[in-house]
């Protein structure tokens, strides 16, 4: 039996899943995602007040610095987003990255205004850009609860379709997966994806919510519900059986570990027959 998940997990533990390097030039993010790992890290390491995280600050030194040619695809951004308020600066930075000869993974919870501008500006670099839009649910109310100021599903979907129809490479990150309606999410989005759909859990959720000061009873109850169904063995088994042979669906480490366990158990059961 081919042990593809086990082998992929081994490779993943040695390398980054998305990109080896990333470029950022803003501190903070106006999306106000409750589970934000960048905010939690900034609070934990720099003792910042998380209530100030939504006030984006452009680091002019990073914006103006010379960009080198990276050996592999570089992610832009990874600790903030591309939002209308700083779209011009984001265009400036992306242009520098591309002109240095880099291939770029553009990661965003996309505002259509930003997607449209990027697509129209960088048509000569289509073969160098791979969009990875974060869409963890097809339900805008669910997105609004967890990602307060980020775009609705409808706007993100519009961005995905626009980039696809403009001839860009497209992919999706459903990390964190925010509801169980993953089958409909994959079916709906896959028509406009040229690359991959990444599925992942909301990791260290309680810790991040606490440090980010989102710890009222309703939020913690919702978090507990999310954690339970994401780790439900029946749900994980469904994901494995449904998508184990789908080359478009990829797994972040959180679920890749689960897929590897199921794969190993299936192999042992087969050998015992």
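-> sequence recovered:
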């Amino acid at each position: 039996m081919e042990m593809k998940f086990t082998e992929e997990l081994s490779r993943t533990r040695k390398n980054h899943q998305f990109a080896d390097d990333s470029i950022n030039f803003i501190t903070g993010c106006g999306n106000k995602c409750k589970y934000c790992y960048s905010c939690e890290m900034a609070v934990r390491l720099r003792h910042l007040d998380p209530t100030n995280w939504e006030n984006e600050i452009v680091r002019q030194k990073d914006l103006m610095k010379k960009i080198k040619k990276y050996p592999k695809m570089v992610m832009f951004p990874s600790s903030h987003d591309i939002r209308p308020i700083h779209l011009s600066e984001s265009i400036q930075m992306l242009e520098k990255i591309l002109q240095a000869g880099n291939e770029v993974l553009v990661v965003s919870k996309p505002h259509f205004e930003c997607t449209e501008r990027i697509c129209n500006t960088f048509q000569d670099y289509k073969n160098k850009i791979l969009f990875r839009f974060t869409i963890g649910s097809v339900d805008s109310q669910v997105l609004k609860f967890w990602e307060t100021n980020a775009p609705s599903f409808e706007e993100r979907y519009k961005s995905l379709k626009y980039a696809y129809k403009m001839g860009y490479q497209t992919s999706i990150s459903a990390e964190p997966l925010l509801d169980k309606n993953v089958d409909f999410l994959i079916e709906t989005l896959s028509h406009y994806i040229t690359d991959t759909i990444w599925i992942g859990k909301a990791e260290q959720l309680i810790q991040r919510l606490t440090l980010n000061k989102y710890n009222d009873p309703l939020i913690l109850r919702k978090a507990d519900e999310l954690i339970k169904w994401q780790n439900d063995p029946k749900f994980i088994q469904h994901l494995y059986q449904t998508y184990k042979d789908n080359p478009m669906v990829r797994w972040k480490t959180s679920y890749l570990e689960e897929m590897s366990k199921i794969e190993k158990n299936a192999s042992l059961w087969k050998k015992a027959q």
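The radius of gyration is 19 Å.
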